[in-house]
UniProtKB/TrEMBL annotation:
High-level lineage: Bacteria, Bacillati, Actinomycetota, Actinomycetes, Streptosporangiales
CDD domains in alphabetical order: PIOX_like
PROSITE patterns, per database record: PEROXIDASE_3
Protein name in the entry: Catalase
Cofactor or coenzyme needed: Ca(2+)
GO annotation, biological process: defense response; fatty acid biosynthetic process; oxylipin biosynthetic process; response to oxidative stress
Record keywords: Dioxygenase, Fatty acid biosynthesis, Fatty acid metabolism, Heme, Iron, Lipid biosynthesis, Lipid metabolism, Metal-binding, Oxidoreductase, Oxylipin biosynthesis, Peroxidase, Plant defense
One function term, GO molecular function aspect: peroxidase activity
Amino acid sequence: MAKQQERIVDEPPVVRETSTAEQYERYVGGSPEAERVILERLAGDLMRVQLKIKERSGAAGIDRAFHAKAILGVENARLRFHTSLPEELRTGFAQPGAEYPVIVRLSNASGVRQPDSAPDLRGAALRIQVGAEETHDLLMTNHPVSHAANAREFVVFAQVMAGATTTLRKAVALYVKLPWALGWSTAARMRRNVLAGTRREVRSLALETYWSRGAILWGQAGPVRYRLRPAAVSPSAVPVPREDADYLSHELAARLASQDVVFDLCVQRYEDAGLTPVEDGAADWPDADVPVVPVATLTIPRQDVGTADARAAGIRIDRLAFDPWNTTDEFRPLGNLNRARKAAYEAGSAHRRGRRFVTPTPRRNLVVGALLRGAFGVLNRYVPWHRLPTWIGLLNVATIRQVLRRDNLIDTEVRQAPPRAHPVPPPLDETLLVRRTYDGTCNDLSDPAMGALGSAFGRNLQPVYRPDLFDEPNPVVVSRELLHRDSFIPARSLNVIAAAWIQFQVHDWVDHKRCPPGTRSVEVPLPYGMTWANTPGGTPENVMRFAENDDLRPAGGTGPPILSANAASHWWDGSEVYGGDETVARSLREPDGGASLRLEDGHLVPGPDGIPITGFRNNWWLGLSVMHTLFAREHNAVCRALREEYPGLDEESVYHTARLVVSALIAKIHTVEWTPAILATELIDIGLTANWQGPPKSWLTHLGLWLADTHALTGIPRTLPDHHGAPYSLTEDFVTVYRMHPLIPDDYELADHRSGRRLETLGFNDVQGAATEPVMRRTGLANSLYSFGIAHPGAITLRNFPRALQAFERDGEIIDLSVVDLVRTRRRAVPRYNDFRAGLHQPRLRRFEDLTSDPDSLARLRDVYRSVDDIDTMVGLFAENPPERFGFSDTAFRVFILMASRRLQSDRFLTVDFRPEIYTPLGMDWIARNGMTSVILRHCPELAAVLPRTTSAFAPWRPARPEANTGTTHD
């Protein structure tokens, strides 16, 4: 379940205006926000009920959790308010003489399609169509009270009754499972209500009375319950034998063939909490004490429901999602059951339509998982996971990930609480089913804004907002003592392409929007005697100044700025290549709507400032130019292949399909090539390959996964989307562990790939910003790739931050990026390193020696920090001794194993919609057959001789041998 964000130190309480409806309501958990989380969980339980019904009934697809079998569906009914409508009930669309078209659906209440003679409740759903932007859905059942007093009872009852289609199963559910779940007295009351409603003989749904059970607001008149009862005169119809499994629908068809079916719509008005409770759905509003006032007449006109048009209308209506929250705030549903309906109806409808998914965990996995957590919890006190044999270590890592999924996914978005009414959602644009949107909306079709551009960063750990510690210890001192690079420390297992790649990826994932320079700034005091020029040629000052982030704030606009919006989409959608909105994306394409990206002689097109026009242009340097150029060419290659294979595809379809293919290929390269290169162990290689294509074909492996984690038996692309209890987002903690600037070298030797001859040696400032493209053009893509391939990046460790980035010009400011990284992490309320570790279920440090054994680092840490609890997160991550052959720390790895699979698992285009129908068969084959090496060779085939033969393109390349061109030979 998604965790709510706890109140932060010093944050004043949010003041929220109380609505008219809330005067009558009481919230489970004590507040609308607390209740929302509970109801979301119950909505998930109802989706599991849908799955259970599907499995038990053998249905081909997921049906409604309730009211699965329609008896009648018509679009031509009319509702007319009485001219004598009482004055106090005249509000909104309820006006004397007003008449509206109505869609009517009458149904059996069960979630299983069964004969009409089976004991069941019956339901009526009305959609009153007031205008193009206003409708009102009224839902009723033919018994005056609910079997459930509240949402929890309702869901538990649905769970125990799901799929109980035989008499024996129903008896076991009602007399054994229900008392066990809710207690004897509650179960007895629920049985009485259910049996009273279902055992009564129903001859015709035209002769039934239907009650709302729950209340709705009726404008200033306050709460009402409504009902639909047969009009005083209702002639009989030709009887239909009850042996007919569909006798109720046949009876209605026969009745409507000869007469109108007419009902009175009536209301009962609220008296007080005792006589007319709003929150208790199982309590009756007695007719003797609360007058029943007729307000309107519903007429279903005489018609032949067997015509082709009528049957088509019935199919359309059966696909509708009726929801009591399809209304206006003036007629808002009231009470716990109705508030639960909002979450439940939206989730259930989306699940039924294949727009939201649920993946139940088998009971054996829950049991075995609990045993493994206990066993590894003890074992890891003595032996860390990375020192265990490979297969035990893999199981250990999988267990750690399950714990992190349970405890470390925190939703920070401000959600609607209490719920509000809304219009009927418009029909879904069909193109959204097969294309990524430009801004990341509609990846999750049931929550279109999830993960989109502008949505908030989530959290893996509860934020710790301490303004009093923003400058303690001074971040400039921390940088100079612990981060500054005196001499370059290489990471010899990697090449500089790996450094360029991760920045290329981070620009797709995360981007904190900065305020324009000079509008809102962070000021960092400098140590005594030190000055800083904050602008090129500026006057030295005693503070370091740089642009503040443009942050979101908690609801109400008060409190600390701890919620930051992502200026990129959170999805793995290639936005760094394609742009994050439609305007940018279209500007990058060939003129006249062509599918290909614009290139000049194979190079990116420079903008007026000299930096190429591409999806993400900030922090530009030669490494990014290489990556962007390579994948712009790859996009165009996919476009050419699609045009040739499918000449009927229009250019818009070619573009969007190519974007899907290239984005998925990038995700695959990162998963199965870059990550195993920087975490170079057999365990990681097996685990990440399994993430993409499934585990090795070993009966022992499959048995272990069947017992412990059935969902891992296939690669993630062959599963359903799963957000693991919290709406998908990337997190501030994720941003923190991907601060990998030490990978960037300060100096670059550019060489010829044919001879190995040095072309020139440049500093970082010579290959960044507007200076980048002239270097790229004269060196060429092949030589640039070769030069990066044979060079090592920096190790991610202390005292290895690039010197060039410690006096770096950006947007008219001179910044020390190491100081900026420290300050940003503190101000974004990311916990300090020791709290960070503890929050990820690692033992706390008790002394500096627990972090590192290096004498120089220990001395510097003691000089800078008063205690281990004060160590900055980034410093701790750099100082930590990583597992053998790991390029970053075990603590960072915890966030990685949680979020790496989540980026795949949450994305429908990398799970349920990763299929030929969306990508085309050619596109699926392109992704399957290609990786970083083949992409490089497609666009630079001349590099075949120097690329690694048996490892990834992120490992060091073979230097070209000048002797090969002079006739010299070697053994």
